[in-house]
Specification:
Elements: H1 9-17, H2 33-42, E1 52-58, E2 66-72, E3 80-86, H3 100-109, E4 113-118, H4 129-143, H5 145-148, E5 150-160, H6 162-177, E6 184-188, H7 199-203, H8 212-223, E7 250-255, H9 261-273, E8 278-283, H10 290-293, H11 298-315
Length: 332
């Protein structure tokens, strides 16, 4: 497949030399997802960064829910700000382990704890199960902050791709239900709009990592026959929300060459119009999830530095010591 002419030249050369295996969901029977998940889980992933303590917790409640916590060992018992994190995977794939390196680098670089949510995937657990799990995790973190060594006044929500959409939905749900109030939402290339009607959603029928057909598949798995209809809740597809006022400050980023580009641009602009302080970054020549696929190249390294700096500023952390945040694939 020829690459888009706007693709970053360094990334284009790397992809030509070693193309990533495609994840093609179009036409995949739902019963075959379990095998694909197992295959993805068995694939080599970067371990957590050194200097980070990783612990799994199983939350009490009506449905099983695991969260994976990351905490810099050097922090000791000091109360830390916390990022409640949602992994990507198009609502149907993924696990906290796939983000071990990413979020442990956040923990070191931003001097914070991270709680990553192993939310139930679709289609076995359609909406509202995934966002209910994420909101439940946020409430648990707020309720157990003292035990976990966290500062309940400095909680943020964030995620990438499907997880970014779930983080945005969790912020909406927290606002509207009077739950814990995050001070920040950290939305990396978030999956926000089930309607798939923007120019970018139509343009990228072929893509390096997440083509249009995959996106249609993920939304159909989450919403069933409701996908694209007028009956979809904003807690499922945050782009549907009519009122974005009163939400926490946000960081939104997206690649130039991906399905989610236009819905992310519009969501960031609507946040600003609603009076929500928002920083937006469009990464030129970048495809969906570029910083995870090619973490050691120049543009992904720049994005990773930006992410750590954004979190550190938003959570009020002190600047890290020299070298902090370099482990686990985060660049110097």
């Amino acid at each position: 497949m020829p690459h888009h002419p706007n693709l970053d030249p360094e990334m284009a050369a790397a992809l030509a030399a070693d193309p990533p295996p495609p994840t093609l969901l179009d036409g995949l029977p739902y019963e075959d997802l379990a095998a694909l998940r197992a295959e993805r889980a068995a694939a080599a992933t970067a371990p957590p960064a050194e200097g980070v303590e990783v612990t799994d917790h199983h939350l009490p409640g009506p449905a099983p829910l695991r969260v994976r916590t990351y905490r810099p060992r050097a922090a000791g018992s000091r109360a830390l700000p916390c990022l409640v994190w949602m992994h990507g995977g198009g609502m149907v794939l993924g696990s906290p382990e796939m983000d071990d390196a990413r979020v442990s680098a956040y923990a070191l670089g931003a001097d914070c704890a991270v709680v990553s949510v192993d939310y139930r995937p679709a289609p076995e657990h359609p909406w509202p199960a995934p966002v209910e799990d994420c909101y439940r995790a946020l409430r648990w973190v707020a309720d157990e902050a003292g035990t976990l060594g966290l500062d309940p006044g400095r909680l943020a929500v964030g995620g990438i791709s499907a997880g970014g959409g779930l983080a945005a939905a969790t912020a909406l749900l927290a606002r509207d239900s009077g739950g814990p109030s995050p001070i920040f939402q950290f939305l990396l290339c978030p999956m926000l709009d089930d309607r798939n009607t923007t120019a970018s959603s139509r343009e990228f029928t072929e893509a390096v990592t997440w083509p249009r057909a995959n996106n249609l598949y993920g939304w159909a798995a989450l919403l069933g026959p409701l996908a694209g209809s007028e009956e979809v809740s904003p807690y499922a597809a945050p782009a549907r929300a009519e009122d974005l006022s009163g939400l926490p400050p946000a960081y939104v980023d997206v690649g130039e060459l991906e399905v989610f580009r236009d819905e992310c641009v519009r969501y960031a602009l609507r946040l600003i119009e609603a009076g929500v302080s928002t920083e937006f970054h469009l990464w030129p020549g970048a495809f969906h999830g570029f910083d995870g696929v090619l973490p050691h190249l120049a543009l992904p390294r720049r994005a990773a530095r930006e992410q750590v700096a954004v979190l550190r500023r938003a959570l009020g952390a002190t600047p890290p010591a020299a070298g902090a945040g370099r482990a686990g694939g985060t660049p110097p």
